[in-house]
Amino acid sequence: MEIAQALILGIVQGLTEWLPISSSGHLVLLQIILLSRSSAAFIALVHAGTLLAVIVAFRRDVFNVIKSFLEGISELPKGSAFSSPERKLPLYILIGTVPVAVLGLALAKYVDEIFGSSKIVGVGLLITAALLYSTKWAGGERPLDLRRALIVGLAQSIAIFPGISRSGATISTALLSGLKREEAIRYSFLLSIPALTGFLILELIVSPAHEILNPEGLVGLLSSFITGLIAIKFLLSIIRRGRLHLFSYYCVIVGIAILSLL
Q1: How far apart are CA 131 and CA 169, in angstroms?
Q2: In terms of residue numbers, what domain contains 195?
Q3: Distance CA 163, CA 150 (A)
Q4: What residue ranges are annotated as transmembrane?
Q5: Among 68, 120, 161, 201, which is least packed, fewest CB within 10 Å?
């Protein structure tokens, strides 16, 4: 892989991981167009860049979640460990992560078939479009609870399939479940951290060290980190203005084009 290709793939990963248009789908398409399949190590590094982006963007929330979890653990003997909403959030994140972990392990041996199909990408983008468009009618003031945490976690699990946007699926589902807009945003982004961390660890385990420590990988990591931060800031402004559905038009156009041409 050349530096220019690494830069392009890193930028695409950074933008599409957080914009609700499916990073996996766009990476699959780019690899088809460039006739170059990225190594597991490179994929891991660009995901590391987007993971760092969300941790930096939500650093206060990440700190508070860790703090609440540790405080809850320390008060287990008292019987009031996870009674407050702040203390419950770490548990909701763990519970919401279970579906994607289970489905990911179940589909592990089918990775090549799933990620080698442009038709799956096209269908996935149309599903993403439907979810995003439906948010035109979403709205609520309900707090996060166990049921909604699990529902959003299930939505995250289907984003394993290329073409289905993780951020699009989780934020749309959270809004449709009646969650307050800010709570839907916060939970969706915090929920992504364990999933991305798990994926990153699995990819690094099977990656030779020499494939990780190279200029192309560093370019991919830095470009995905920088563009990831930009994408998160842009997406937050769109959601807060109630215009998440606008991304559905792009997903429909690209999804139909893929199914028609590839």
Answers
A1: 7
A2: 3-261
A3: 22
A4: 15-35, 38-58, 91-111, 114-134, 149-169, 189-209, 219-239, 242-262
A5: 201
Q: How far apart are CA 97 and CA 212, in angstroms?
A: 27
User: Are 57 and 185 contacting, i.e. CB atoms less than 8 angstroms apart?
Assistant: no
Q: Where are the alpha helices (DSSP H) in the chain?
A: 3-18, 23-34, 40-57, 59-74, 85-106, 111-115, 118-134, 146-158, 166-176, 181-205, 209-212, 215-240, 247-261
Q: Per residue in 30-52, pLDDT tens?
A: 766 765 666 777 888 898 999 99
**What is the number of structural domains in the chain?**
1
- Tell me the two tokens of residue 118: 């442009």
Q: Is the dihedral of CA 125, 130, 133, 134 positive or negative?
A: negative
Say if residues 88 and 52 touch (Cβ distance below 8 Å): no
Give the span between the Cα atoms of 214 and 211, in whole angstroms. Answer: 6
